[in-house]
Amino acid sequence: MSAPSFDLTGRLAVVTGASRGIGAAIAEALAASGADIIGVSTSLAPGSAVEQAVLAHGRTFTPRAVDFADREAVLALGAELEHLPVDILINNAGTIERAPAAQHPLELWDRVIDVNLSSQFALTQAVGRGMLARGHGKVVFTASLLSFQGGINVPGYAAAKSGVAGLVKALANEWAPQGVNVNAIAPGYIATDNTQALRDDPERSRSILERIPAGRWGRGEDLAGAAVFLSSSASDYVSGVVLPVDGGWLGR
């Protein structure tokens, strides 16, 4: 029996939210495994740090500037990508808004749901059509610990990430028989822009660290192995899974 292959040579990967943090780390990891990258972010100019990282691995990088709060821009991107031989779609674009539920402005709720869930589905629908026509593909969403828990002061984010977990299962049920694997990674507390407010709050930061068995905040590169696995032929029999990468948080 041959060993499972994590080699992505010749594959084309789309990574949204690619300019920094988790998205940039995943884009570089996929490139290191052989994939060419189309990087998508709200602002992503030629010559960015993520582009330089991808090029350093000898792969190509194509930047696309798209605001996931702009439905028409997302649909235009989907129309473009549907006709490209995309092998891997990493749905990582996202945003967070913090306010107590009783005072949470509806416009913030709407924005988070649009960016983190509705636009994710719209892009996946378009890219997925191309994958289904070719009979193969890998779709990986960025879920969250709040796909399993409720969080505090982030009702829109918790609802959206719970929705992502459900969407992964729904798409997997339909697409796995046609050769397209749909899964998600659920990052734990990762040191990114989204968690800056928590890390800046001494009490919240301490309480979070006390619960993480690994004893530290995660880094973007901690997601790299899971992303490569779920994007490669090593995961051909994995479908509908939300994989926590959380330093042991959920097992505590």
Which descriptors apply to this entry?
single chain; 252 residues; alpha/beta; Rossmann fold; seven-stranded parallel β-sheet; 8 helices; 7 strands; 42% helix; globular
Descriptive overview:
The chain has 252 residues and is an alpha/beta fold. It has one domain (12-242): Rossmann fold. 42% of the residues lie in helices and 15% in strands. The chain is built from eight helices and seven strands, in the order βαβαβαβαβαβαααβ. It has a seven-stranded parallel β-sheet, with helices on both faces. Strand 5, helix 5 (155-175) and strand 6 form a beta-alpha-beta unit. Helix 1 (21-32) packs across helix 8, helix 3 (71-82) packs parallel to helix 4 (106-134) and helix 4 packs parallel to helix 5. It is globular.
Q: Strands, helices and their partners?
A:
Elements: E1 12-16, H1 21-32, E2 36-41, H2 49-56, E3 61-65, H3 71-82, E4 88-91, H4 106-134, E5 137-142, H5 155-175, E6 180-187, H6 196-200, H7 202-211, H8 224-231, E7 242-245
Parallel strand pairs: 1-2, 1-4, 2-3, 4-5, 5-6, 6-7
Helix pairs in contact: 1-2, 1-8, 3-4, 4-5
